[in-house]
Amino acid sequence: MLLQILTLIGALGMFLYGMNTMSSGLQKAAGEKLRAFLAAMTSNPFKGVLTGLGITAIIQSSSATTVMVVGFVNAGLLTLNQAVGVIMGANIGTTVTAWLISLLGFKMDISVLSIPLMAVGFICSLSQKSKTKSIGEFIIGFSLLFLGLSFMKESVPDLQSHPEVLSFISRWTGFGFGSVLIFLAIGTILTLVLQSSSATVALTMIMLNLGWIPFEMAAAMVLGENIGTTITANIAAAVGNVQAKRAAIAHTLFNVFGVIWALALFRPFLHFIGRIITLLGYPDPSVTSFAGSMEPGSDEATAALYGISMLHTMFNLINTTLLIWFIPFIVKAVKWIIKSPAKDDEEKESFKLKYINAGHLATAEIAIEQAMKEIVHFAEISRRGLGYVRLAINEQNPDKFEEYRQKLVKYEEISDRIEYEIATFMNSLSKEEISEESRAQIRAMYKIISELESLGDSGEAISRILSRKNAHGKVFGKEELQNLTRLTGLVDSAYEAMIANLTVGYGNLKDISNAYDAEQNINEMRNNLRDEEIVDIEHEGKNYQTSVYYMDIISELESMGDFMINVSQALVRAKY
After folding, report:
1. Residues 155-164 pLDDT 10s
2. Residue 427, exposed/middle/buried by CB under 10 A (0-12, 13-18, 19+)?
3. Phi-psi bin for 541: left (phi > 0), alpha (psi -120 to 50), beta?
4. Domain range list for the chain
5. How far apart are CA 530 and CA 482, in angstroms?
6. H-only helix segments in 472-575
7. I want to staple 405 with a disulfide (CB 3.0 to 4.6 A). Which of 58, 338, 463, 542 is the partner?
8. How far is 311 from 297, CA to CA, in rounded Å?
C-alpha cells in the first residue's frame, strides 16, 4: 500500500513535470509569434477571448497564460480591459487538456507510444536550431505527461483489494449539498497545492473512472479547481504593480462568480451536461447514482469522463458568455478593491523598477518586452535628472543649490541601481533557450543600459563642477547662463529623440535621423561656445578659472549627447 502511494506521488510528479516541459517547449518555439499574436488580437474583448483561448490551447497551461497576462499588464503591454478578455479565453483554453486526457488517456493506452516519442524528442533536442530543440522538449513533455497519467491510473489502490479506501471516500458523499461543498473545497485545495488545474482534473478523472467518487462529486471538484487555479496569477502579481494585482483579482472574481451560479443551479447544470452527453450517444452520467458500479472502459465510464470534460468546457463558455458584456464593471470592481497608490507613494514608486518586478515570465521571449519597457522607463527617469541639472546651473541661492546637488547625486545612485537590476533580469533571460535574434536584442540592451547609467554619472559630474565653482566664489555671467540653458535644451531634445526611438524598439526602428540631428545640434553649439570662450579669454580678459568650469560643463553636456546617440545606434546595429 505504501509503495502504491509513493508510486502515485511519483507519477503525479511525472505528470506535472511533463506538462511544464511540454508547455515550456511550445512557448519557446512560439515565443515571438505569441508576442505578436497578443499585440494584434486584443483590440476588443471578443478578440481578447479568442487570444487567451488560442494561446492556452497551444501551450496547454492556463496558469502560464494568466501569469503571462499579469506580466503584460505589469509591463503596460496590455490594458486591464484587454487582460480580462484574455483571461476569460484562457479559462476556456485550459479545458482542452481535460479533453486530451479523457479522449487519449483513458480510451487508449497512449503511454505505449511515450517511449518511442521520447526517442524522437531526444533526437530533436540534439539539433543546432533552437526551434527544433524546443519542439523536442515539447515532445518529451507530452510523452512524460501521458506516461505519468498511465502510472497514476495503475498506482491508485484497487477497490476490491482495499475496500477501506472506498468506504473512506464514500463517507464524505452522503451529506447532500454539503458533500458538493466538501468536494468543491477538496478541488480548490488540491489545485492550490499542485499549482496545476490540469493535474487536479486528471486526478479527478482517475477517481471517477475507478469508482471512488460519483459524477456529481467529480463535478464539484472541477468547480473547485477553477477557483484554485487563480492562485498562480495572484502569486505572480503579489510583487507586481497595481495594474498587475488588479488583473489577478479580475481572474479570481471571474471564476468565483462562475462557481456561485454553477452551485446555485447545480442539479439543472448537471442535467444539461447529461443531455449533451446523451446526444453524443452515451448514457447520461448525471443520473448514475454512484460510479463504483461502472467498469473502466465501459460506455458508462466513458460517458462520465466525457461529462467531466464537457462540464469543464461549458462552465467556462457560459461564464465567459455571461461576463464578457460586463468587463467594464469587472474593471471598476477591481479598481475599487485595489486602490491606486497615493501621490507620495507614486513619487517613491517612480524610482523603482516598474515593469519587471513581478519576476520574469514563463516565456523568456516575451519577458524581453518587459525589459525593453523598463529601459524606456529608465530613460524617462534619466531625463528628469536633466531638469535638476538645468536648475542647478541657474541657481544662485546656496541652500537651494545644495538641494539640487543632492537630487543629482540621488539620480546617479538610482541609475546605478536600475542598471544593475535590469542587467540581473537580463542575465536570467540569457540562461534560457531563446532565439538568436533575442540574444542579439539582449546584447543591445546591455549596451543601452550602460549608456543610460553614464547619463546619470554626467549629471552628478556637473553637480561637482558647480560645487567647485561655488567653493571658489566664481559666478557665471548672464550670457554664460543663457548659453548653458540653450545647450541643456538641446540635450533635452536629444533625450526626446532617444526615448522616441526606444519606444519604437529593437527590430522596428529603421531610421534614427532624429537622434543624429539632435547630436549634431549639440556638437555645433558646443564648438561655437568653446570657440567664443577662447576668444573672450584672449581678448576680453575673462577669468580663466571661471571659463574652465564653464567649458567643463559644456563638455559634460556634449558627452550626454554622445551617450544618447549610442543608445539609438545600439537599437539598429545589433546583429545576430
Report:
1. 655 544 554 4
2. exposed
3. left
4. 2-337, 348-573
5. 14
6. 478-504, 513-539, 544-573
7. 463
8. 20
